[in-house]
UniProtKB/TrEMBL annotation:
<dbReference type="InterPro" id="IPR000847">
    <property type="entry name" value="LysR_HTH_N"/>
</dbReference>
<dbReference type="InterPro" id="IPR036390">
    <property type="entry name" value="WH_DNA-bd_sf"/>
</dbReference>
<protein>
    <submittedName>
        <fullName>LysR family transcriptional regulator</fullName>
    </submittedName>
</protein>
<keyword id="KW-0804">Transcription</keyword>
<dbReference type="GO" id="GO:0000976">
    <property type="term" value="F:transcription cis-regulatory region binding"/>
</dbReference>
<dbReference type="Pfam" id="PF00126">
    <property type="entry name" value="HTH_1"/>
</dbReference>
<dbReference type="Pfam" id="PF03466">
    <property type="entry name" value="LysR_substrate"/>
</dbReference>
<feature type="domain" description="HTH lysR-type">
    <location>
        <begin position="1"/>
        <end position="58"/>
    </location>
</feature>
<dbReference type="InterPro" id="IPR005119">
    <property type="entry name" value="LysR_subst-bd"/>
</dbReference>
<keyword id="KW-0238">DNA-binding</keyword>
<keyword id="KW-0805">Transcription regulation</keyword>
<dbReference type="GO" id="GO:0003700">
    <property type="term" value="F:DNA-binding transcription factor activity"/>
</dbReference>
<comment type="similarity">
    <text>Belongs to the LysR transcriptional regulatory family.</text>
</comment>
<dbReference type="InterPro" id="IPR036388">
    <property type="entry name" value="WH-like_DNA-bd_sf"/>
</dbReference>
Amino acid sequence: MNLDELRTFLAVVETGSLVAAAKRLNVTPSTVTARINGLEEEIGQKLLHRNKSGADLTSPGFKFRRYAELMVQLWGQARAEISLPRGFEGVCNVGLDFDLWEGPGRRFLDHVRAHCPGVALAFWPGEQRMIDRWLAIGLVDIAFCHAPQEGERFASHVLFDDELILVSREAMAAPLMDASYVYVDHGDEFRRQHAAAFPGDVTSALVIASSDWALDHLLRNGGSGYLPRRHVAQALDTGALHRVGNAPGFRRRVYVVENAQTVRPWGWYASALAAAASH
């Protein structure tokens, strides 16, 4: 098994055909076929159903895809770490929940760039299950996320509690859970808190699992929804959004999870983490 075979397999999956993959990779279709055949021979399973209309994953191919993606990612990370430009003392690979760039992710980056110029950074955005896997395989050294990590290799610390508040483009004296309400999905704990606070049926024609996307939608189209205060602070200050009166607030805990052995010798890390946690 080699990287060319893995990249070719992923290109076929992403483009849907061997011919399209050949064009993307700038090789001949026969080369693509040979690489896929070689990979399947090594795995001992058919990974793709091939037909005139294209190629689809088999059940073994579906399972193998995520491993292929991880192997290609790990190779890219290894190259990045080994080929650091002269003058850099190391690299910090950061896993980041999509909603945590605004705030801790950006503050961490700004601090390191301003005060630790010898440290290179790589950011990997993803949802919680992806971050858990990246931590487990060592793809990331630290992660800003919403769930602590178990295991002796990891240390989990509470960074802060996000305050989730109900906001709307139009001033409202009380929550109005009608068709204009946007259900912003902030995870399991939020779902429980929300159900307890609003035990009746909540009419929502739209569910968005991203604070950034939900904020954009509210600003462009109106309506109301629960968002982190740090996401909407500027919009509240300018009057573009309003906090809904008499609406309950919720909290969502933010953690930093570290590979304890990796971060131990980093003299710069404590101050960067303090910057990430500041408000």
